[in-house]
Specification:
Number of domains: 2
Strand content: 25-35%
Distance between the termini: 54 Å
Oligomer: single chain
Radius of gyration: 21 Å
Number of strands: 18
CATH architecture of the largest domain: Alpha-Beta Complex
Structural class: alpha+beta
Order of helices and strands: EEEHHEHEEHHHHEEEEEEHHEHEEHEEEH
CATH topology of the largest domain: Fumarylacetoacetate hydrolase, domain 2
CATH superfamily of the largest domain: Fumarylacetoacetase-like, C-terminal domain
């Protein structure tokens, strides 16, 4: 049977020796998180009164220099922490989601393939049994058309007019090829889980899937300073019944995984490297089921910077920065069980999301109602940092 530990040797980027990697580690000795950086075979504690949180570190213009060479506190053996994390040994030092005070935002419908699947969900009203027939009806009619237009362009506007006239327009096409993308809040601050953790799917959902994505670490100034991997767990039956159920489909206990670490942009790795990345999804089921698919960021319909500009600006600020999940092209259509029913998760699925220069994020699927309860929130974090003497009075803008 598959296990997260099977992916241990893929956790770090293939060029980890040259990467600037930071994250968060839970230390049982202090009962709370530490900001850490990878240095060779060690994880070095960067937590101090200057960088008590990951949000503080990412806001600093010298974040790369701090991660690489600032005097640290304690250290942990990297290999041991990774092994304990993937083995679920939560009583030992282990990795957490690498983000803390940042708002967790997500962009939807940024790939033509997933755009079409959203339209299919809408027309199927959340019924997976209807999806295949609708897919065969719509793919040839609108699939090629939406893949060839730039969102918000004159050509996109003309295409909309044609599709409206033919009764084929959809709210998903509106955000997919219209001037404004879908940007939504995926999860509350501190609610995401890290690699090795369980991810939650509502027990009453009968049509759902993982969404492998690249996630950007963005500062309060709207500047992307690093990236990681994300699983934007999705309930297709809920959102398919009504777009107003988006929150129920997207935001549940343990429904957002991020990690394993944040790779900071530096001289050897920039946002341009992400624009050509391929992201591999692998699902290993308890019954021996195996699915593997590859998404290419090259196929995104909107650029990273465009998505950031729609999320952040004079219209909306994030004083602690934010995480931006940039969308997925993965929409599984192969039947897992009964013919015509498509793909849906089973408890015990091991989901791994990998790209060579960010590493591997791996999680095990459980019912959201059975996943560990989210108990460590903002008050708990502030109380823990205060007890450790890590909070100082700093000037805040009104």
């Amino acid at each position: 049977m598959a296990s997260p530990t099977d992916h241990l040797d893929r956790t770090l980027p293939t060029d980890a020796a040259d990467a600037t990697l930071v994250g968060r580690l839970f230390d049982p000795e202090v009962g709370g998180p530490c900001v850490v950086a990878v240095r060779g075979t060690e994880l070095v504690d960067l937590t101090s009164t200057q960088t008590p949180t990951m949000a503080d570190l990412l806001e600093r213009p010298d974040a790369v220099a701090i991660a690489r060479s600032a005097t640290g506190g304690r250290s942990w053996r990297l290999a041991q922490v990774l092994a304990d994390t993937l083995a679920g040994k939560w009583d030992r030092p282990h990795l957490l989601s690498p983000f803390d005070l940042q708002v967790i935002k997500a962009a939807g419908v940024t790939f033509a393939r997933s755009m079409l699947e959203r339209v299919i969900e809408e027309r199927a009203k959340g019924d997976p049994g209807s999806a295949e027939q609708i897919r065969s009806q719509l793919s040839d009619v609108i699939g090629e058309a939406i893949a060839q237009v730039r969102p918000g362009s004159e050509k996109a506007l003309r295409l909309k007019e044609v599709l409206v006239a033919e009764g084929l327009w959809s709210q998903y096409l509106e955000v997919g090829i219209g001037p404004d993308p879908e940007i939504f809040t995926k999860a509350p601050v501190l609610a995401s889980v890290g690699t090795g953790a369980e991810i939650g799917v509502l027990a009453r959902s009968v049509w759902n899937n993982p969404e492998p994505e690249v996630a950007l670490a963005v500062t309060s100034a709207g500047r992307a300073v690093g990236a990681t991997l994300a699983n934007d767990v999705n309930l297709r039956d809920f959102e398919g019944r009504s777009a107003l159920l988006l929150t129920a489909a997207k935001d549940n206990n343990a429904s957002c995984a991020l990690g394993p670490l944040i790779r900071l942009f530096d001289d050897g790795f920039t946002i341009d490297d992400l624009r050509t990345a391929d992201v591999t999804l692998r699902i290993e089921g308890p019954e021996g089921y195996l699915l593997e698919a590859v998404s290419s960021v090259r196929e995104m319909s909107r650029d990273f910077e465009e998505l950031i500009a729609h999320a952040h600006g004079r219209h909306h600020q994030y004083p602690d920065g934010f995480v931006l999940l940039t969308g997925t092209m993965f929409a599984p259509t192969d039947d897992r069980d009964a013919p015509g029913q498509g793909f849906t998760h089973k408890r015990g699925d091991v989901v791994s999301i990998t790209t060579p220069r960010l590493g591997c994020l791996v999680n095990t699927v459980v019912a959201a109602e059975e996943a560990p309860e989210w108990r460590f929130g903002i008050r708990a974090l502030m109380s823990n940092l205060a007890a450790r003497g890590l909070l100082t009075t700093r000037e805040a803008r009104p």
